[in-house]
Specification:
Distance between the termini: 58 Å
Bound molecules: S-adenosylmethionine
CATH class of the largest domain: Alpha Beta
Structural class: alpha/beta
CATH superfamily of the largest domain: Vaccinia Virus protein VP39
Strand content: 15-25%
Number of helices: 13
């Protein structure tokens, strides 16, 4: 089979797989329009998903489509650009055994303060939430075992909301009473605000510019705290966890999502194993209730960890 015939074959198989998922199918079509050769990767990513992961994918796609409306090609191009950046970081990581940057100041200069970088990156990361198996894995955990497990009204705090999907879903929950989201980057907070407005969130969400590492002692407590894909961006993630421990009510829960061995231009703290992450969470005064792991492309976990392939690790914890 020629390369072109192979791509056509994978594209057709994807269309069949996504037949009952119109929102996801539309996003995949937009991506393949700018990046046809991505069909084989996507087929593998979707084929590995359980029915629950496919259902969660469609939830994320439905929200993402509203955010993309009229700008599908821009988002798809941003996604391809993001994947290209990450491939370069991966080459460095596997050659050197460390992330390329190690200080917040470096990440600030290269990424957070650089609009030309942030704009396609934020678009790309939104689509990764749908197209990457490991990202969907922890997203489904959040939907079902975190938000879905709430039985009483809750006050919600999220650190680093980025694309805004999680705070949006928390706002949609009839049980959410108050909502706050903090981020160090005004560019990122602006993206979150635009997303919440586009998604029609009417409950007030306090979006506040805060560096979690410099936050003063919390002046109140929350029932549900979410910190997803943020700890690896910090020089001292244990300090952030200790702060969040104080901000969590005695009966509250925290959801922590960290990618292990996941090189990215703004990842500066390397978590290599689930054990070191759990140890840090426990050292901050939490008791881990459950841990779930999802390797890139649904690979086997032990092999992924041994070969330093990215594994998203979701932790639900309570005060110890
Ligand atoms: C990759 S995004 C995470 C987006 C989303 N939560 C997710 O799970 O995909 C990381 C976010 O953390 C924010 N962040 C990085 N360092 C931070 C700090 N010191 N304090 C607060 N937010 C920070 C970034 O600005 C960015 O919005």
């Amino acid at each position: 089979m020629t390369d072109k015939a192979l791509t056509a074959d994978k594209t057709a198989a994807l269309a069949t797989l996504l037949g009952a998922m119109p929102e996801t199918d539309a996003i995949v079509a937009a991506v393949l329009a700018v990046w046809p050769d991505h069909a084989a990767y996507l087929l593998k990513s979707f084929s590995a998903r359980s029915p629950a992961l496919l259902a969660a994918t469609e939830v994320a796609s439905s929200a993402a489509r509203k955010l993309m409306a009229g700008n599908e090609a821009r988002f798809a191009t941003g996604y391809k650009w993001t994947c290209d950046q990450l491939r370069d970081e991966e080459i460095f990581f596997h050659r050197e055994g460390r992330y390329r940057l190690s200080t917040f100041a470096e990440a600030w200069d290269e990424v957070y303060s650089n609009h030309d970088y942030m704009a396609p990156y934020v678009d790309g990361l939104l689509l990764s939430q749908i197209l990457w198996y490991n990202h969907v894995g922890t997203f489904e955990m959040f939907l079902d075992r975190v938000l879905g497990a709430a039985t009483a009204p809750f006050d919600y705090l999220e650190i680093g909301p980025g694309h805004g999907l999680m705070v949006y879903l928390a706002a949609r929950s009839p049980l959410s009473r108050t909502l706050a989201a903090w981020d160090v980057s005004s560019i990122s907070l602006h993206e979150t605000r635009v997303a919440l407005d586009r998604l029609g969130v009417t409950k007030p969400v306090a979006l506040v510019e805060v560096d979690i590492l410099k936050a003063a002692a919390p002046d109140r407590q929350y029932d549900l705290i979410v910190i997803s894909e943020v700890l690896e961006h910090l020089e001292t993630p244990g300090v952030a966890l200790a702060f969040l421990r104080k901000a969590l009510r005695p009966e509250g829960r925290i959801f922590i999502n960290v990618p292990l061995n996941s090189p990215s231009p703004d990842h500066i703290y390397l978590f290599s194993t689930p054990e070191e992450l759990v140890a840090m969470v426990e050292a901050a005064g939490f008791r881990v209730v459950s841990t779930e792991m999802f390797a890139t492309q649904g690979r086997k976990l032990a092999a992924a960890i041994a070969n330093r392939i990215s594994v998203s690790t979701g932790i639900i914890a309570v005060p110890a």
